């Protein structure tokens, strides 16, 4: 394919961005206006016209999928392109991993080159063990993950700082890095290194967090130039820390030139008019297409009725000549796909589900991965303990015994393995424990496989005696056996594809499974296959389809119960992302009889934000938004939440897709107070001086947050829950706002 043809397709605005000569250029663009198109064209332009080698460019994306799309497009231009030339193209974390493994001196930080990447949950497991062993006093352990991420100094009087220090030492000693360690350590080591990319190119820059900006900064030297594209209306990962104004920060830091792309090429005007209702401050959104069908809003009894309706509707659409692959269904939570999968299978509708279960979700695979981790890295004591003390697989000894056993091994680590097993093992619970034990097999693994060619699946399977360790009498034995073999087959294919030696490939596989988890077992959804695509709203980012169905647009699902007004905003942007995937037709639906108690019956407040004249609804008597009705809905939602909190154990963690909801000790009381207060007024109102607060956190514990209001000026947030927020304004005192309508802005 001719690169010139790629560049000829661009509009004048897009060409201006691609041919821009400034040192730092930010393209702040609307949804569907060609950001991906421009980013890829920029790389092509730099390479073919400006003769910049690909290996002089660092191209940072947010997802592996986006990085692969860029690589595929470049391969289409140059069939024999060497993938090694694109070694700096990838997600922030994978590029950091490459730098640390191949170019930076990780030993300066106490690490060895063959370190492993772990997920945040594993870090929490290590932390909990340290807390137990060292008898540290840590408050709110059920929020430990967030506290470790967010609190540089402890907000409470406890041992968090000491825990952090011990944790750091433990990770180094186990030769493991978390995702944030990857960035943090790269930033640290880049200061001393002479890595000098000519270009740093960033996709979806709006979702970058502060650490990612530090990473970009660390890559810069006096000749490095930046090209970044993004859309502030599509921030959907602020819970990972991207909520501040990235555009402003970059512009300010590098005196960047800012360009914009405004015309949406994807959706017809009827869809864009609906999308516009969800833009912050009613921003501008123009398209270059005609008006199309009005969007449809459907009332459904429940998710089963909806799945049956969708099966019929999809057949009808397909019969008109639209391929299945042009149809997509989006939902808020992953588990909403199950009923669609069942009904579609029965009705012969071909489909693909994006983001199935991860390895960590399947116990036997989680156990097997930890086994491989420990086999590759005997310092990884936490994986070792997990493997030996699992209740269903392996030796099934107690955690305490496993810890003692591994400690015994590490105390003798100066001995070689042969010596270790011939001496008196009085630390083991049973003297003959090591005879052909799983521990011995794991410890001898690297030596055994260091010189062999890539082994057969059965060789690895038998080496670890999986048949014994999966316990043939267990009900899940056959299924587990198949899963382990499938995992090993995937591993061998991966290593062959990457042309690596066995142990090197295994290490890479383990790290990739931590970084991209989901893609190892269920390969990425194949966009080209003629199947209907089912996915969460989060997964839909960057894609486009002729027909889009967004289901479950009920309060409690879309939007999910939000804990802060930023979260409510983010839910709104998420729906915006979903809506703007549609090229020609869009349908939203809601349940009158939802299956889960967290979901409120009836259309969500988001549907009510769409003016009546933009919607075709065959069976709905729609009212425009009415505060009293909304008050009733919010109250009901509040009651549901209160029931949920009362019925749950205080230590329970409810996992809602990627976001955690923590149930804190004093939230029950807080919610009751709130419900009472809801019965008074819902609009902005004065809080009298007698109001005693009942704050979730005491004022000293609350992080100081400033917000501004058009009339009252700048104030400090004194309390907040999922629906209401209270702000103290210097000149006006305390005011309470309903978040859905407040025009507060984060300062
Ligand atoms: N100059 C152009 N002429 C015609 N169509 C275009 C042009 N530029 C982009 N498009 C088309 O518009 C659609 C959106 O483009 P693209 O995916 O690059 O936009 P985006 O800004 O990255 O989208 P999103 O905001 O959803 O991430 C695609 O179908 C693309 O082929």
From TrEMBL:
<keyword id="KW-0347">Helicase</keyword>
<dbReference type="InterPro" id="IPR013986">
    <property type="entry name" value="DExx_box_DNA_helicase_dom_sf"/>
</dbReference>
<keyword id="KW-0547">Nucleotide-binding</keyword>
<dbReference type="GO" id="GO:0005524">
    <property type="term" value="F:ATP binding"/>
</dbReference>
<protein>
    <recommendedName>
        <fullName>DNA 3'-5' helicase</fullName>
        <ecNumber>5.6.2.4</ecNumber>
    </recommendedName>
</protein>
<feature type="domain" description="UvrD-like helicase C-terminal">
    <location>
        <begin position="264"/>
        <end position="542"/>
    </location>
</feature>
<dbReference type="InterPro" id="IPR000212">
    <property type="entry name" value="DNA_helicase_UvrD/REP"/>
</dbReference>
<feature type="coiled-coil region">
    <location>
        <begin position="60"/>
        <end position="87"/>
    </location>
</feature>
<comment type="similarity">
    <text>Belongs to the helicase family. UvrD subfamily.</text>
</comment>
<dbReference type="GO" id="GO:0000725">
    <property type="term" value="P:recombinational repair"/>
</dbReference>
<feature type="coiled-coil region">
    <location>
        <begin position="131"/>
        <end position="173"/>
    </location>
</feature>
<dbReference type="InterPro" id="IPR027417">
    <property type="entry name" value="P-loop_NTPase"/>
</dbReference>
<keyword id="KW-0413">Isomerase</keyword>
<keyword id="KW-0378">Hydrolase</keyword>
<dbReference type="InterPro" id="IPR014017">
    <property type="entry name" value="DNA_helicase_UvrD-like_C"/>
</dbReference>
<keyword id="KW-0175">Coiled coil</keyword>
<feature type="domain" description="UvrD-like helicase ATP-binding">
    <location>
        <begin position="8"/>
        <end position="268"/>
    </location>
</feature>
<keyword id="KW-0067">ATP-binding</keyword>
<dbReference type="Pfam" id="PF00580">
    <property type="entry name" value="UvrD-helicase"/>
</dbReference>
<dbReference type="GO" id="GO:0043138">
    <property type="term" value="F:3'-5' DNA helicase activity"/>
</dbReference>
<feature type="coiled-coil region">
    <location>
        <begin position="620"/>
        <end position="681"/>
    </location>
</feature>
<keyword id="KW-0238">DNA-binding</keyword>
<dbReference type="GO" id="GO:0016787">
    <property type="term" value="F:hydrolase activity"/>
</dbReference>
<dbReference type="GO" id="GO:0003677">
    <property type="term" value="F:DNA binding"/>
</dbReference>
<dbReference type="Pfam" id="PF13361">
    <property type="entry name" value="UvrD_C"/>
</dbReference>
<dbReference type="InterPro" id="IPR014016">
    <property type="entry name" value="UvrD-like_ATP-bd"/>
</dbReference>
<feature type="binding site">
    <location>
        <begin position="29"/>
        <end position="36"/>
    </location>
    <ligand>
        <name>ATP</name>
    </ligand>
</feature>
């Amino acid at each position: 394919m001719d690169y010139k043809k790629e560049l000829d397709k661009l509009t004048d605005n897009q060409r201006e961005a691609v041919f821009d000569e400034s040192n730092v250029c930010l393209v702040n663009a609307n949804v569907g206006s060609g950001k991906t198109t421009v980013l890829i064209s920029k790389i092509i332009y730099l390479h073919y016209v400006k003769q910049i080698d690909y290996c002089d460019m660092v191209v940072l994306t947010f997802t592996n999928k986006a990085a692969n799309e860029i690589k595929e497009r470049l391969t289409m231009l140059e069939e024999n392109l060497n993938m090694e030339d694109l070694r700096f193209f990838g997600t922030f974390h994978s590029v950091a991993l490459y730098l640390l493994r191949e170019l930076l001196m990780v030993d300066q930080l106490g690490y060895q080159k063959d370190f492993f990447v772990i997920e945040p949950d594993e870090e929490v497991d290590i932390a909990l063990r340290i807390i137990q062993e060292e008898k540290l006093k840590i408050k709110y352990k059920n929020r430990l993950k967030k506290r470790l991420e967010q609190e540089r100094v402890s907000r409470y009087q406890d041992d968090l700082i000491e825990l952090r220090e011990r944790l750091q030492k433990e990770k180094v000693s186990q030769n493991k890095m978390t995702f944030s360690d990857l960035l943090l350590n790269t930033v640290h080591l880049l200061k001393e290194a002479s890595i000098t990319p000519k270009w740093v190119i960033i996709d979806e820059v709006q979702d970058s967090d502060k650490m990612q900006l530090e990473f970009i900064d660390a890559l810069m030297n006096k000749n490095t130039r930046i090209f970044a594209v993004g859309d502030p209306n599509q921030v959907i990962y602020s819970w990972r820390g991207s909520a501040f104004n990235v555009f402003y920060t970059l512009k300010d830091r590098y005196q960047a030139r800012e360009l914009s792309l405004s015309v949406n090429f994807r959706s017809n005007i009827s869809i864009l008019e609906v999308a516009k209702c969800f833009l912050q401050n009613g921003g501008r959104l123009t398209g270059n297409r005609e008006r199309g069908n009005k969007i449809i809003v459907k009332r459904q009894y429940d998710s089963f009725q909806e799945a049956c309706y969708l099966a019929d509707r999809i057949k009808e659409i397909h019969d008109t000549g639209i391929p299945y692959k042009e149809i997509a269904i989006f939902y808020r939570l992953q588990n909403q796909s199950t009923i669609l999968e069942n009904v579609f299978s029965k009705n012969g509708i071909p489909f693909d589900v994006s983001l199935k279960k991860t390895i960590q979700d399947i116990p036997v695979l989680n156990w097997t991965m930890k086994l491989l981790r420990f086999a590759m890295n005997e310092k990884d004591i936490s994986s070792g303990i997990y493997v030996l003390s699992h209740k269903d697989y392996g030796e099934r000894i107690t955690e305490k015994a496993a810890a003692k056993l591994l400690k015994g091994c590490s105390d003798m680590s100066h001995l070689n393995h042969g010596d270790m097993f011939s001496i008196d093992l009085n630390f083991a619970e049973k003297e003959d424990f090591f005879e052909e034990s799983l521990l011995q097999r794991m410890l001898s693994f690297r030596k055994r496989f260091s010189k062999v060619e890539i082994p057969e699946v059965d060789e690895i399977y038998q080496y670890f005696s999986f048949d014994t360790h999966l316990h043939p009498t267990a009900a899940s034995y056959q299924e587990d056996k198949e899963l382990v073999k499938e995992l090993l087959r995937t591993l061998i294919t991966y290593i062959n594809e990457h042309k690596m030696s066995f142990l090197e490939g295994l290490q890479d596989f383990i790290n990739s499974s931590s970084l991209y988890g989901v893609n190892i077992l269920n390969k990425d959804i194949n966009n080209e296959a003629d199947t209907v695509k089912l996915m969460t709203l989060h997964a839909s980012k960057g894609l486009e389809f002729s027909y889009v169905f967004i289901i479950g647009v009920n309060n409690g699902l879309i939007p999910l119960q939000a804990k802060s007004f930023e979260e409510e905003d983010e839910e709104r942007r998420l729906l915006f992302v979903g809506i703007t995937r549609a090229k020609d037709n869009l349908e939203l639906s809601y349940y009158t009889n939802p299956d889960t108690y967290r979901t409120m019956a009836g259309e969500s407040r988001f549907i009510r934000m769409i003016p009546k004249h933009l919607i075709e609804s065959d069976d709905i008597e729609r009212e425009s938004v009415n505060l009293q009705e909304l008050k009733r809905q919010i109250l009901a939602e509040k009651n549901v939440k209160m029931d949920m909190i009362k019925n749950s154990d205080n230590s329970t963690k409810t996992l809602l897709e990627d976001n955690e909801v923590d149930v804190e000790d004093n939230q029950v009381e807080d919610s009751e107070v709130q419900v009472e207060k809801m019965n008074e007024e819902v609009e902005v109102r004065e809080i009298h001086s007698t109001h005693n607060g009942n704050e979730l956190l005491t004022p000293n514990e609350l992080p100081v947050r400033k917000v501004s209001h058009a009339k009252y000026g700048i104030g400090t947030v004194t309390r907040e829950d999922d629906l209401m927020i209270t702000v103290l304004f210097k000149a006006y005192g305390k005011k309470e706002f309903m978040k859905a309508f407040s025009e507060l802005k984060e300062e």
